[in-house]
Amino acid sequence: MTSHLNLTASPRTPYTPSVLRAEIGTNFRPQSESAGRHEPEAGRHELRAEGLAVGYGERHVLSGLDLEIEPGTVTSIVGANASGKSTLLRTLSRLLSPAGGRVLLDGRSVHSMPSKELARVLGLLPQSPVSPDGITVADLVGRGRHPHQRMFRAWSAADDAAVAHALDATATADLADRPVDELSGGQRQRVWIAMVLAQQTDLLLLDEPTTFLDVSHQIEVLDLLADLNRDRGTTIVMVLHDLNLAARYSDRLVALEGGRVYAAGPASTVLTEQCVQDVFGLRSRIIDDPVSGGPLVVPVGRHHQGPTDGV
């Protein structure tokens, strides 16, 4: 199954950073191909998995998994390596077909929806995406507009505005004319996020969006996603490895263990010492995060045991 985005679409006239900045308005509300049709309220699309069973050949990764993504929330999927996090995200976006169960978007099977219709609602940033050789930043971000294109319709001012806004939001406008393959890992990651933002979907699925980023840029990306959720009602589902960032930036956590949902709900109920032990095989202490007031996981290693550990 291929991605919803067409990365080989015909190129446009390249942007310059000055043009990009001039195109960004304070009342940015670009029109889309779907204008005039009745669709669910922004951010209110319902995504659900029922009885998912997914595997690779003989190896079963997900088994009998049920999950409901609450519209308008930020949900982080956490779990140990090989617990099925990326497989779940890829199945929700229909990049993988389940051997059993189904994925429903607004009550419809995602596998029955036309690709462009699905891509106007659901955007995916996969793990370690690969860009076409020699493509510039602006052209890659412009590929995010493919779901909004129609036959015989020229690239529009709304498309320009969407790309400009995405580049500005991710602080990549000054990189617009640079080839993607010349960028650092952190810069590339921000460009990929810009492409997904240009797609302007109400549902965003991101597989480790903070990969390759230093701690400052990790916070910038997560703040950006939080802004999208707060200001546009965008429903966000992401895989994160950092439990403490997941707890701070998410309305709900989904902890996977052995291909099933071990626990799901607010971070305060999911991130317990028992959960961290069972899911990650790690002893920990849970304290209050002095910034958010939520749970903060403090790992207990063999060489840094507290006064009551090992007794």
TrEMBL record:
The subcellular location is: Cell membrane
What Pfam families does this protein map onto? ABC_tran (PF00005)
Entry annotated with the keyword ATP-binding: yes
Which Gene3D superfamilies does the record associate with it? Answer: P-loop containing nucleotide triphosphate hydrolases
UniProt-listed PROSITE patterns: ABC_TRANSPORTER_1 (PS00211), ABC_TRANSPORTER_2 (PS50893)
Among the record's GO biological process terms, what is one?
iron ion transport
What is the protein's major site of localization? membrane
UniProt keywords (A-Z) are: ATP-binding, Cell membrane, Ion transport, Iron, Iron transport, Membrane, Nucleotide-binding, Transport
Q: Which SMART domains match?
A: AAA
The record, for SUPFAM superfamilies, names: P-loop containing nucleoside triphosphate hydrolases (SSF52540)
Q: Which residues form the ABC transporter domain?
A: 47-283
Which Gene Ontology cellular component annotation is one that this UniProt entry carries? plasma membrane
Q: Name one GO molecular function term.
A: ATP binding
Name assigned to this protein: Iron complex transport system ATP-binding protein
